UniProtKB/TrEMBL annotation:
Domain Thioredoxin: 45-208
Keyword Signal recorded: yes
UniProt cross-references to Pfam families, sorted A to Z: SCO1-SenC
CDD domains: SCO
Binding residues for Cu cation: C83, C87, H171
Family: Belongs to the SCO1/2 family.
Cystine crosslinks: C83-C87
GO terms for MF: metal ion binding
Leader peptide range in chain numbering: 1-19
Name of the protein: SCO1/SenC
Protein keywords: Copper, Disulfide bond, Metal-binding, Signal
This protein's record includes keyword Metal-binding: yes
Length: 211
């Protein structure tokens, strides 16, 4: 599974490396051909993998759904507040992106806790405050085990409970770009500063797609 994600990431980064005003990011995930009727004619279109509807409780004990991200590009990731390994670096790197676009209504941030047992709203709130998040542009959410791990699969991110690893949870540190149509447009190693720089460049490419 890890190899599959690595190969997919490498392919996506290669495709997004093109330059020029017509540059576009790849679209990740499965796709299928579908028939549509346009002006009385049957045409073949492509249906892409999208993030499904979801509902989670945030750091303010407010229900956050996919509708909160309508008509926005957003960056999603998976973490837990007492993570002793990759999370601190990943979240500090994502904070740099947040600070660059703070107040920019085109973009939002969504961090899913995979610790469904401990990361209650007040824990997430303290974590967000300590990290330096000062507005509702970046949401920190949690939910049931089934819902959190189910949505991780939809983001194509590996996450599971594992008592054999430090902290009790195993997961990938990807920062996933989702476009306004809820399609995955990029995945970047949040612990790698060069990958985060690439994310910043690719965000600008995606912004230009919507001009």
């Amino acid at each position: 599974m890890r190899l599959l994600y690595t190969l997919t990431l490498a392919a996506g980064l290669f495709l997004s490396a093109c330059s020029g005003n017509d540059a576009k990011l790849p679209i990740y995930g499965d796709r299928e051909a579908v028939e549509k009727t346009v002006d009385g004619k049957v045409v073949i279109d492509t249906a892409y993998h999208t993030i499904p509807a979801f509902s989670f409780l945030n750091q303010d004990s407010v229900l956050i759904t996919d509708k909160n991200f309508d008509n926005k590009i957003y960056i999603a990731n998976f973490f837990f507040t007492h993570c002793p390994s990759i999370c601190p670096t990943m979240q500090r790197n994502l904070l740099k992106v947040y600070e660059k676009y703070k107040g920019d209504q085109r973009i939002a941030f969504l961090s899913h806790s995979i610790d469904f047992k401990y990361d209650h709203p007040y824990i997430l709130k303290a974590y967000a405050n300590k990290l330096g998040v000062t507005n509702d542009q970046w949401q920190f959410v949690n939910g049931s085990k089934a819902d959190i791990y189910g949505i991780a699969n939809d983001y194509l991110v590996f996450a599971k409970e594992d008592s054999n690893v430090p902290g009790g949870y195993d997961h990938q540190g990807y920062l996933v770009i989702v476009d306004k149509e809820k399609r995955i447009r990029g995945a970047y190693d949040g612990t790698d500063s060069e990958q985060v720089d690439k994310l910043l460049k690719d965000l600008e490419i995606l912004f230009n797609e919507y001009k």
